[in-house]
């Protein structure tokens, strides 16, 4: 029954909710009884994700929005309030940054990287905070292991992720005061469209196949396997469950053992 679902009656915003990790999280939260507002740029992908959520009995609203635009996060919050009347959960998942050699990355590349993932999250949380405070809600930031272990081809992503990790810790202290749970999950190598494209490119370059490239990635990173979006979704549902409110300010690496730092 609905009342037995761990997130029954909760209202969640999930950014980047049209595909990959965001879609998996939105679908899992809906299965657990949450009503979900998903935001992303691609209207077609949003409609497809909404259809999948509807098929599991979830109530869903969508908004096509580019969170790099300063007014977009506020529009997402307003749409959630208009659609569902309240906000209990914000999952910041939107954001991708350009990889490449540092000297070949422009100011525009750096600005774009921070605009979506970092400032999009900051603005969305700021707009939603009064509503989260009122309902003793929760924020979950989906960040990435590059914030802990930056690399030479991930200077933008590592810097953005590092900023997001620091933001999470600071926000968690405010959350203690205001009764809002704040945590982060750092995914490792997850089979999203982006990772599959990397594997296909590696396979083409070395004359192999994508699964061989995947096995090579697992071996090189010394991890148990590649992750699936559902792995992140399962953890998100656990973190956001009301019985786990003692979890506060945690930066959880879900990466198959890739992060070696203490």
Question: How would you describe the overall organization of this protein?
Answer:
With 262 residues, the protein is an alpha/beta fold. The protein folds into two domains: 2-190 and 227-253, Rossmann fold; 192-226. 49% of the residues lie in helices and 14% in strands. It is built from eight helices and seven strands. It has a seven-stranded parallel sheet, sandwiched between helices. α5 links the parallel β5 and β6 (181-187). The longest helix has 28 residues, at 107-134.
| Relative helix content | 40-55%
- Overall number of structural domains: 2
* Mean of pLDDT: 96
Structural class: alpha/beta
Placed side by side, the strands forming the largest sheet appear as 3-2-1-4-5-6-7
Could you name the CATH homologous superfamily of the largest domain? NAD(P)-binding Rossmann-like Domain
Low-confidence runs: none
How many whole angstroms does the radius of gyration measure? 18 Å
């Amino acid at each position: 029954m609905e009342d037995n679902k761990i997130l029954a009656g909760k209202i969640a915003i999930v950014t980047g909710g049209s595909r990959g990790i965001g879609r998996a999280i939105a679908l899992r939260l809906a299965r657990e009884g949450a009503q979900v507002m998903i935001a992303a740029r691609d209207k077609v992908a949003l409609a497809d994700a909404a259809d999948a959520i509807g098929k599991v009995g979830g109530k869903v609203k969508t908004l096509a929005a580019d969170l790099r635009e300063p007014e977009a996060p506020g529009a997402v919050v307003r749409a959630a309030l208009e659609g569902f009347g309240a906000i209990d959960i914000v999952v910041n998942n939107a954001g991708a940054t350009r990889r490449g050699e540092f000297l070949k990355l422009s100011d525009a590349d750096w600005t774009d990287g921070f605009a979506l993932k970092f400032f999009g999250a900051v603005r969305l949380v700021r707009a939603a905070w009064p509503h989260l405070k009122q309902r003793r809600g929760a924020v979950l930031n989906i960040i990435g292991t590059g914030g802990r272990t930056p690399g030479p081809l991930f200077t933008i992503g590592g810097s953005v992720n590092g900023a997001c990790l620091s933001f999470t810790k600071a926000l968690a202290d405010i959350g203690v005061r205001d009764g809002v749970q704040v945590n982060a999950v750092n995914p490792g190598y997850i089979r999203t469209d982006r990772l599959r494209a990397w594997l296909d490119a590696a396979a083409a370059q070395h004359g192999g196949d994508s699964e061989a490239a995947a096995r090579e990635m697992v071996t090189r990173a010394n991890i148990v396997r590649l992750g699936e979006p559902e792995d992140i979704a399962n953890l998100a549902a656990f973190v956001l469950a009301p019985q786990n409110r003692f979890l506060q300010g945690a930066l959880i690496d879900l990466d198959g053992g890739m992060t070696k730092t203490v």
